Amino acid sequence: MTLPNTAREIHLASRPEGFPTSDDFALVEVPLPAVADGQLLVRNLVMSVDPYMRGRMNLSKSYVAPYEIGEALTGGAVGEVVASNAPGFEVGDTVLHGLGWREYAAVDAADATKVDPQAAPVGAYLGVLGMPGMTAYAGLLDVAAFKEGDVVFVSGAAGAVGQVAGQVARLRGAKRVIGSAGSDAKVKYLVEELGFDAAFNYKDGPVAELLAAAAPDGIDVYYDNVGGEHLEAAIASFNQFGRVAMCGSISNYNTTDPVGPRNIGLAVGKRLSLRGFIVWDHEHLREDFVREVSGWIASGELRYQETVTEGLDRAPEAFIGMLRGENVGKALVTL
To answer: Domain ranges in the chain?
Structure first.
């Protein structure tokens, strides 16, 4: 194939104050990347937008370096190898890598993983079979130490991570699985499509009251994607020795006045365990995750949705929409 001389990528134009806006991003045309020894030139097919990216737009200390103003953003992507200077990779291979937000990427071969587009749609490797799915699996089973018979509450349950976490709990023998979401349509999706025992729209009233009604016997595990009022509600509903897998706090990502649980003192008497985690600390579960979740998808026992936006130029729009909860399941951008 004839390659272009230039390619487009999305840069961070400014650090957002509160919710990001389109002015915080810039669509820039750059020379086609040169490919050094040990690298691949990849034409991206699909890229991911994820909540953690919002934190990287701030100039603050975190577990991963912040994005730089005037430089291309990064994130998960799947693409086709169009040139290779690395053994083991050939033109035409499909690879998963971390240089999304651009049409073409020069990727170090060590940072690229071959995926099979015949085994699953390429977007699945960024969602249910990718980082979000692995995050759900590891958070529930390793971090929250889920066991059969637990009552499990998942916040942000219709998102990329939540939709998997709730179903893994159900398939692993939870006594009851409860989810929260931000619309009645998402609540219906959780119960009717994904098999949650109960779900509620957190906009319908105080979360503590909604959760107490959905879990009259209390909860044992809380998979926390939201933080804030949801975490406070979970602490109130916990049975003794409850466990929290603290995955994210999206309710506080775009505010200058974060809300924290006011009842954290209950954690002492209830002997609660609240544990934050990062997915790459749980690579020992990778083979189990792929085998078990792939099997459930193949059998139809685990279902998922994706919200797909077309066009690199619309990636900021997709990202902002995801932060506002407009997506169902994994938010993806096709290039």
So the answer is: 6-127+305-334, 131-280
Residues 44 and 100: their CA atoms lie apart, in Å, by 7
pLDDT in tens, 177-231: 999 999 999 999 999 999 999 999 999 999 999 999 999 999 999 999 999 999 9
Q: What is the pLDDT of residues 64-80, one digit of tens each?
A: 889 999 999 999 999 99
Identity of the amino acid at 20: P
d(CA 73, CA 77): 12
Question: What CATH number has the domain spanning 6-127+305-334?
Answer: 3.90.180.10
291 class by beta-carbon count within 10 Å (0-12 exposed, 13-18 middle, 19+ buried): exposed
Determine contact, residues 228/251, Cβ cutoff 8 Å.
Answer: yes
| Rounded Cα distance, 134 and 163, in Å | 12
Q: 13 vs 57, 121, 260, 316, CA distance in Å?
A: 10, 32, 30, 11
As its CATH architecture, domain 131-280 has 3-Layer(aba) Sandwich (3.40)
